[in-house]
Design goal:
repeat; 79% helix; mainly alpha; TPR_rpt; Tetratricopeptide repeat protein; 15 helices; Serine Threonine Protein Phosphatase 5, Tetratricopeptide repeat; 0% strand
Length: 268
């Protein structure tokens, strides 16, 4: 996809974004109020329809959005108590606990879900968490899913997750090979570009990292993180103007990138 936004437009949008910082904060507060209102409405509806699983799951989502993981987990536990062989409930609990950074119990929940129904997507979700935890069982799961021969999409996921595992344990060469294999299966797999770039960036090979992040932006010119990390590379190479421009572009695409806002305050 060709880069089609002019720098002038980007800068104008960024200036407008700066003026609207207060509005953005107000929007966040408004969303919080709306979520609280939704929460109270759901509690009333559930009180009148205690057997509605749909309403209870909506309540879980609302609690999750408010970072009230303990109460959300309690709601899921109540549902699981009535239907302990429900794959979806165990999987949803795993996702919730993963979001809450409770890795140990998230893994337990995913495993319970997969014993009920070993879905490929569920296996990959677990494998990704294991890879981030430097657990080699991630590789076992990826190999199992690869053997199902479900197509290039799943092959890309498996190679990416295996790459994450090797990156986290410090085997950078193997990780790079797997990220390349992932991109070969899916040229638009943005996370694979990011992980490749991180390896070079962490090794202080900023010019090489920059090329990877620029390639990511060429593939998807609306991917904010690609511009943010280009900016990080430019900043590390003492190219202030280029860094500022890319931080600004990243904020045009994602106004919630706090790190980019902080970097601009530091550089301007």
């Amino acid at each position: 996809m060709k880069y089609c936004l002019s720098i002038v437009v980007l800068l104008l949008l960024f200036i407008a974004g700066c003026k609207n910082d207060d509005n953005a904060n107000s929007s966040d507060e408004k969303r919080l109020r709306e979520n609280n209102i939704l929460l109270h409405q759901l509690e009333k509806q559930i009180a009148a329809n205690r057997d509605s699983i749909g309403l209870r799951l909506k309540l879980v989502d609302a609690l999750d959005s408010l970072n009230n993981y303990k109460e959300a987990a309690a709601q899921l536990d109540s549902l699981i108590g009535k239907d302990s062989l429900n794959y979806g409930l165990w999987f949803r609990k795993g996702r919730l606990l993963e979001t809450a950074k409770d890795t140990f119990n998230a893994i337990l929940s995913y495993n319970k879900a997969l014993k009920i129904y070993p879905s490929p997507d569920g296996q990959l979700q677990l494998a990704n968490l294991l890879a981030e935890s430097k657990n080699e069982n991630a590789l076992v799961i990826c190999q199992r899913v690869q053997e199902l021969r479900l197509g290039r999409e799943y092959s890309a996921h498996c190679n990416f997750i295996a790459g994450v595992y090797f990156a986290r344990i410090g085997n950078k060469q193997k990780a790079l090979q797997l990220f390349d294999a992932c991109i070969n299966d899916n040229f638009a797999y943005m996370e694979a570009y990011q992980e490749k770039g991180f390896i070079f960036y962490d090794d202080k090979k900023f010019a090489e990292a920059l090329k990877i992040f620029q390639m990511a932006a060429n593939v998807n010119n609306t991917y904010a993180d690609a511009y943010y990390w280009q900016a990080k590379c430019f900043e590390a190479m003492n190219k202030k103007e280029e860094a500022i421009k890319n931080y600004q572009t990243s904020l045009v695409l994602d106004k919630n990138l706090k790190e980019a806002k902080d970097a601009l305050k530091r550089l301007q």
